[in-house]
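ok trying again, last paste got cut off:
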Amino acid sequence: MNRDIVIVGAGLAGLSAARALRNSAPLVLEKEARVGGLAASKHVDGFTFDYSGHLLHVNSARIRRLVDTLLPGALRAVTRRAGILMEGRLIDYPFQANIRFLSKPQQKECLLGLIETAGTALSRGEREGLSFHDWLLACFGRGIFRLFMEPYNRKLFQTDLRRLSSEWTGWAIPRPPLEEVIDQLLGIRKHDYGYNTTFLYPKRGGIELLPQALARGVREIRLGAEVTRIDVPARRLTLKSGEQIRYERLISTMPLKALVGLSRGVPPEIRRAGRGLKHVSVRVVNLGLRRKPATRKHWFYIPEARFTPYRVGLYANFAPRTVPVGCGSAYVEIARGAGTRLARDQAKRAAIALLREMGMLGSARDVVVHDQLDIPCAYVIHDRERRTNLPALQAYYRQNGIFLAGRYGLWSYMGMAETMESGMKAAREAGAQTP
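nice, full thing came through this time. structure:
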């Protein structure tokens, strides 16, 4: 079979690319039996669970118009209510803007660190030259670094922060001005910080409504079509069924490391660059609860090493129709290094122990539904090897008619809206390239 444009992956990036190219009739290949990728939902005994918290933070007018067109009236706008579990207390997020919740000695330590770093204005070049460890210290000082930034991020990325680069941090980790931190400390006024202060989420049905709506505008999607080999110079891919498809241009949203692993006919330096890419896996423990927890918060960050999970979210607090009347639900996320194992019972015990510590669960008997999901490639590790290898990989594949899109195709850190935009961008580039 010969095709002009083939798209691998029917997640948000792949479907957005396919919609943008619908006049070119691309073929979309998806190895799963459904569309959506990780923007998927499960429905178990009246509870709706996602693959952890998939919340739509939209800063682009174009994406907002698209979403409103696809799902008119189906989404609700929510103002973030997030917290942190700190020494047995639930405090407001982000940590760096809410030190008023800490003990007096901790407040002093954090404030002194902020004062010492207040005059530090890092240029883009200076920031990119620092490790993540040193960037955090330069921006927030030792108090905030010691109490929250270092333990939380080490737990999330399962890596020494000195090994991570900092080029991705500017938009993801807000740095409030010292004056506003003091305002908060004195109770003068409250500011909201971060890229996710508001978000959109379906009123019912879970986040899978979004990719399902995108898919309705795509002419040809083949489910259960797993790509097992890509002959890059010949522009030919092979499916698990044995079928071969020739393409002129390919848009790949599969994890970049997996793409390199499936590629044939590539130079040794490209294969080495692919092996150098690293990531973190995540186990998601979804729990249906007999009753709704007392808190109104949407999610909590868990920096302390005595707890295995790094984050807890409460679906019903931002989407009440995802649970039966009177019930609650939670997703508990546990990060692990690629290739490490985590027993199902161990993950469940860790999740229940944490919810009990947080006062959200009386006993294990209050759990009426239990489900677990694995995300093998969840967070990209932004280390120095990535910064060196990524440009070479992107350039090589582009020269051979393969365009990368999506969080994992581009091997980057981005939200759902940015993922959709990356698919549209790849569609423009692929559509503009003459076969």
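cool. Residues 132-157 form the longest helix (26 residues). Residues 232 and 265 are 6 Å apart (CA to CA).
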